[in-house]
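PT: before anyone asks, these are the final sequences, not the draft ones from last week. 639 residues across everything. Please model them as a single complex and drop the result in this thread when it's through.
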Amino acid sequence: MTAVVATGTQDRGAARPVSRWGTTRTVLRLHRAALLVWGAAVLGLTGWLVWLTEVTADEARAQQEACDRATQDWCDLTVGTAGYSEPVGWICLLTAHAFLAVAAFAGGALIGRELENGTVHLAWTQGVSPARWLTAKLAVPALGVTLGATVLVLVFRWAWGPNRDLIGTEWWEGDVFVTRGPVMIAYVLCALAVGALTALLLRRALPALGVSVAVTWPLGSVLARHRDSLWPTVTRTSGSGEVAEPRRAWLLENGALVHGRPAPDVTYWQCEGTPAALQRCLDDLGVTGYYATYHPESHFWPLQLVEAGIVLAVAALATAAAFRVLRQRTA
Amino acid sequence: MTDTAMAATALGKRFGRRWGLPRSGEAGTGGGWALRDCTFRLPAGRVCAVVGPNGAGKSTLLALAAGLLAPSEGRVTVLGTDPASARARVGYVAQDKPLYPQLTVAETLLVGADLNPARWNAEAAERIVSAGDLNPKARIRTLSGGQRTRVALALALAKQPELLLLDEPMADLDPLARHELMGTLMSQAAQHGTTIVMSSHVVAELEDSCDHLLLVGGGRVRLAGEIDDLLAAHARVSALSEAADLEPHTVVESRVTGRQLTALLRPAGRLPDDWRPTRPSLEELVLAYLRNPQAAPLTPATSEESAV
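LR: through. Structure below.
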């Protein structure tokens, strides 16, 4: 008797689950302040960059050209920097490190604070199961940070492309590399997931905020340090003269080949004198040729995709772990 | 509607060092058992008091029933199913009345409406809130403890639950608000047949409104059943100490003053008339069990196993 009645009531409860829109609206309501701050940050950086590019870039370029015509030295250092490339560098730095702010938000305000002051118990005893709560808590901000990061990346690409000569940074330099591709979006999503996981593990807002930043920052710097090995490099050798890498390539290593093997430490450039003396010096060192190892600019996308893949895999693992922790601890 | 609102079988919860109910004050026992070997059955439609000293495991029991915690052993069923499946039909108000401090009262009610679209009764929520003279535009963080309790109860009641779990619901209300909200609760229970389970360590608070008792002490169930049945099963006696033989009866508490022996016991048979047996009050009964942790518990444990 009890069992029959029980299934009946269970169906009634399951028949009308919480609408997805209801949980979405609740998450938006709860984190309105964070959403506004994020929106303002994206808008502010975008507006600043557009203004710099539209208004000051041409002026900076004209100044630099005038300076060049006057055949002065160090034109790129004295003219272009202050007006255009320096603020663009700041925007790039802020954008590339936005994931730290996302990590702090996810660990602190998004999940940690709710666990600390018990408001999760309010959410979980409304019609929302803990898993659905975490899904909404991750999905809504994920959408928001993805949109914001996409806008930042697209606008930075738009500004950087035609003005890279003025900005004076290369495609492979740390912050520029991150800010110009999907890696940026992968990092903010990963920060969100890692923040959620640390908050669920620590259950305190402030420690979770600190730990999630302390975890995502090294992740970013470790990957940045090993970025060059994420895709096979190109090595060119030559028997006669030094190898020049292609224009805009990311030169990783070059030097002499000693008995056919790369020897970056051989100081072949100290040999000088007459061609005969030079050749004798090189022979003494055992130099048989030269090489250069580099990433051509065409490796930008493979490098981006591999790094984004790694970061997204970390994000997926953190998300799975967060749901697992949650499931183990609630009914 | 099933005839059992809530049932537990050998239910136990042990807390690790971190996870638990950090703010409830009842889980601060380190890595020990907050609740152990808890077996009872609560029929639907009752108003049940969960009574016990601080740290007895009341909050843990209610959190387990609300599906906020996973049991370490045994199981608890709620409205004929597991707590997770019953979530939509169960209301719960935690001891510290957690609410989102950044929202206004009106926004808090909108959250309730969004998260309970099928069951939400906006009118009931508004009625409870406005009875407390609350400004709907006031932020939760500016409210007093009693006002927060009112909002928390409005959220739980507007969900129109079949089972309402309240953890120390009246603790920070003034007597007037307590009386009014208790009246609201009771009329809800009467109108919709809602089962209410509320914990308290103030027995007097519950005596008038509750018809079922669950006495928890030291993490175990000491008494469970209809209050009338429990009172009827016990007797206060006083007799001359040398003449009285308490042996066949289950003694909960006994005291000798001079030649006079007074005791609270569960009679095993008819008591001699000269013992002057009287029916104890609920408070006397509860205090006697709490003072004497070694007294044999009285729970329908054996009948429960056949019922589930």
